[in-house]
Amino acid sequence: MPRIARVKMHGAIYHIMARSISEVDLFKTDEDRKKYMFLIKEYQEVYNFKVYAYCLMKNHVHLIIDSNGADISKIMHCINFKYARYFNTRHKRHGHLFQDRFKSKIVEDDRYLIALSAYIHNNPLDIRGYEDCPEKYYYSSLAVYLGLRNDKFDILDKEFILSLFGESKDKSRKTYMSLVLRTRTIPICEIIKEEIEFKEEKTEYRSERKILVRNFSVDKVIEYVVDKFKIDKTLLYLKHQKEIVPARGILVLILRNLCNASCKDICGILGNITSSRVSKLSSIGVKLISDDERYSEIINEFIACYC
After folding, report:
1. Exposed, middle or buried: residue 27 (CB in 10 Å: 0-12, 13-18, 19+)?
2. What is the CA radius of gyration of the chain?
3. What is the largest CA-CA distance in the chain?
4. Which residues have CB under 8 Å from 257's CB, separation 6+?
């Protein structure tokens, strides 16, 4: 039977759930959990999406992702594929790790978004030692929402959900915590039916979010990179030119980020290059914007130039 096409929407917010196959835990060690979080961060740099909540459990993961104009399938395929490869290598195993495709549901309104975040943040109640204190679980974003610790993985945008409870941070946190406490034993479908108090409920909030448009032309990206690195355009298409690797890395990163180009697409653009090399160049681009202040704002600079 053919798979049912995944429901996707430009600029949508998604509830993502990925689960391991029944006989294997998705995370065996804290190192595994940290690796998964670092991969979210890596591909956040590539695709410029937002994370509103997360919780890593023993055999599954919950995420609320604002795709910000990117393709959610590309985002999750990259994260899960790279994690599965890491996991199989580290734990000396072969075969599938994830149970079929990841599941995704579009978040339609504020009420569902808030209820969903409360549900996700209550997941650690099922973990021994956290039955009465889910906020202490390190691999959940609840403690960050409550101001108990910083976002150590630097992936979370908590302000959007908290802003729905009012402008005061302290009051918003207290209201949010009371919601999480109040909904610990209630199924998510019942949470949505409850009267949840927050600032000016709306049935549609996308107009208040700025969605990143991903329709920049390939020629503009190439033109920008050539000018930024002061190189001859033809060099971008040559292999084994070490001095051009940073420029190619940034080029690939921008193509994936702002043109929604796949590895296959980029192979066609650059020519005579494999998908694995495109992936490697993308990682080089991510490292450059993360570690080198000369390139830290390069994507925003490109947007400013051509918007």
Report:
1. buried
2. 21
3. 63
4. 46, 47, 48, 70, 214, 299
Per-chain mean pLDDT for the chain: 88
CA distances from 51 to 15, 37, 65, 292 (A): 10, 11, 5, 24
Query: What is the pLDDT, as a whole number, of residue 146?
Result: 93
Write down the pTM of the prediction. 0.85
DSSP string of 187-206, one letter each residue: -HHHHHHS----TT--S--G
- The answer, yes or no, to whether residue 198 has pLDDT greater than 60, is no
> Can you name the CATH fold of 218-306?
Chromosomal Replication Initiator Protein Dnaa; Chain: A; (1.10.1750)
Least Cα distance to 75 among 113, 44, 34 occurs for 44
Considering the four listed CATH numbers 3.30.70.980, 3.30.70.1290, 3.40.50.2300, 3.10.20.740, the one that applies to the domain covering 13-208 is: 3.30.70.1290
- Cα gap 104→43, rounded to integer Å: 18
